[in-house]
Batch of 2 targets.
Target 1
Amino acid sequence: LAKTTQPISMDSYEGQEVNITCSHNNIATNDYITWYQQFPSQGPRFIIQGYKTKVTNEVASLFIPADRKSSTLSLPRVSLSDTAVYYCLVGDEDSSYKLIFGSGTRLLVRP
Amino acid sequence: GAGVSQSPSNKVTEKGKDVELRCDPISGHTALYWYRQRLGQGLEFLIYFQGNSAPDKSGLPSDRFSAERTGESVSTLTIQRTQQEDSAVYLCASSLHQPGLAPYFGPGTRLTVL
């Protein structure tokens, strides 16, 4: 049973900022929040990971509120190559090593 | 350095045959995961290894599925008496044994059962 909830799909245009929110109401104290990107016929690729507040790297930012029951992946100025499925991932409540993927968000970036 | 590798990249088999899928994790990664992804769907957890032991096999869909790991390295996922519903991409991932560390995924093995 998936522990996260994400929008099924999102549309955007090149150059726009895209924010994808994930709900994880049952996140455990020691769990991290991780986001992956997956292109067709490829394995998921790590994007960003955080525990609380805000994390930023060269690809994206991750915003996590104090209660940690949700997180938002922010992609600045998307391009056509950002069209992919994005997965929000948290550790299972029974074991932080059993990682459960949610349904993923299919992002389509249009010209 | 080398990432997670999986072999074969594609496997076509007939219903009822057994198949073995191989995963070579990143060197030094003690945690290893197997996932299944059916066409157009999300990832489905199968099994997790810590070292050579599997503390969580709860995701294996039936007793036709088994997995082992040796030398805290290579892992093999075996599917016996394959069925058409086993057709999927089987993904392997590995990570260091530290809480919350994001695993790295291999390219997957695409299994087609005719």
Target 2
Amino acid sequence: GENVEQHPSTLSVQEGDSAVIKCTYSDSASNYFPWYKQELGKGPQLIIDIRSNVGEKKDQRIAVTLNKTAKHFSLHITETQPEDSAVYFCAASKQGNEKLTFGTGTRLTIIP
Amino acid sequence: DAGVIQSPRHEVTEMGQEVTLRCKPISGHNSLFWYRQTMMRGLELLIYFNNNVPIDDSGMPEDRFSAKMPNASFSTLKIQPSEPRDSAVYFCASSLISGWGGPLHFGNGTRLTVT
């Protein structure tokens, strides 16, 4: 089955700086790569996703890049703000939003 | 919309007892998922339903776990008998299934502690 590795497990950045989280996947048939944000005491929430026919997608301060050849994808957050502090999960699937395999999560802390 | 509603928020029980977790999905969604979250294993898909029918239960750890979806607005996850290693946060999520992707809408979870 699919295996998704995520790095780093923790990340601290100064407010206003950029943060990058990286994931690799094992199944070359995977074609859908969402990113979820989980705040304390809540369930994960989709923040951005990308499909395998696209190399990059951007939504305001958040962007995701995908390298199908290397089987890795990354989340980029620019101009970080305190409210960006949370745990971020990448995921991969070859069946759309069915059977997502999640990475192990990155705890992002924004230092004011 | 109230979102996905899970109950209870917290459950503490003794080993050997039966535990039932409940979920009300978002109205109109055709799929429902049960996930388990632990520090060691992260987020694991246990089972999912499409139009109330179980599609894939390969993530259910063992026969002590069972899930039902008697109608489009209600699902249960039952553990009988419970064991300390079942301690985790259990999430229910619902969505409109799509081969193109799209969000899973998660509830706020049930934190289960088995002593």
